[in-house]
Amino acid sequence: MNINIYEMIPGAREARGLTVVIDVFRAFSLECWLFDAGVKEIYPVGDLSEAFRMKEEHPDWLLFGERGGAKVDGCDFGNSPSSVEGADLAGRTVIHTSGAGTQGIANAVHADEIITGSLVNAKAVARYIKSRDPDTVSFAAMGKAGIASAREDVICAEYIRSLLTGEDCDIDEKIKSLRHDGGEHFFDPDRQSVFPSADFYMCIKRDIFPFVIRSHKLGGVVVNRRYDFS
């Protein structure tokens, strides 16, 4: 198995084979929490205007939109997993556009297959990859807005790789270090409305979800669906 770790939007464009698009803070952690809450399917959209067009066509769908970390005006929610705690999401369809994660899906144009990755379902991602046994695996660590590296995404990619190869990783120490090196913006008292500290803790819960999120092409659109497997 040939394993490559790429970063940001250019890296997503380089990805080949089974591609894992990673966004720990917060897009694909959020999507795991949404599926756990009973969401039916999620349409990941790179272009904001396209997301609003879809919302106009389907007003009953929920629109999650973020740019620069903040909820986009006119959206139902932003990119914050803690903002949907307690919401009745069972059976709902979601449109999701973000500055990094969904951009990775939009740009992974050479991938044979796309799944998403985050710390909350990293072990399930590794099990899925092993079950597929592809010749090539690409990790696209999307970073900050898809244009700057982010430690949490690289750490997640390295952790999943270690589960595939058996190499040492010391993942718990690396996750612990994110509190002061990578996730410190979640603890800035002046930014709690955009980056609540609760999001940090929801995104670093390691291996709590047993499913993966697979991206399916349906005509000209992509839809993410939860995939449970043994």
List the helices and strands and how they pair.
Elements: E1 2-7, H1 8-14, E2 17-22, H2 27-36, E3 41-44, H3 48-57, E4 62-67, E5 70-71, E6 93-97, H4 101-107, E7 111-117, H5 122-132, E8 136-141, H6 151-165, H7 171-177, H8 197-203, E9 212-218, E10 221-227
Parallel strand pairs: 1-8, 2-7, 2-8, 3-6, 4-6
Antiparallel strand pairs: 4-5, 7-9, 9-10
Quick summary:
This protein is an alpha/beta fold. It has helices at residues 8-14, 27-36, 48-57, 101-107, 122-132, 151-165, 171-177, 197-203, and strands at residues 2-7, 17-22, 41-44, 62-67, 70-71, 93-97, 111-117, 136-141, 212-218, 221-227.
Write up this protein.
There is one protein chain. This protein has helices spanning 8-14, 27-36, 48-57, 101-107, 122-132, 151-165, 171-177, 197-203, and strands spanning 2-7, 17-22, 41-44, 62-67, 70-71, 93-97, 111-117, 136-141, 212-218, 221-227. The protein is of the alpha/beta class. The chain has a single domain (2-209), classed as putative 2-phosphosulfolactate phosphatase, CATH 3.90.1560.
Q: Quaternary status of these chains?
A: single chain
The residue fraction in helices comes out at 25-40%
Give the H and E element order.
EHEHEHEEEHEHEHHHEE
List the uncertain runs: none
What number of structural domains do the residues give?
1
From the N-terminal CA to the C-terminal CA, the straight-line distance is 21 Å
Can you count the beta strands? Answer: 10
CATH class (first level) name: Alpha Beta
Write out the CATH superfamily name. Answer: ComB-like
Shape, principal axes of CA atoms: globular
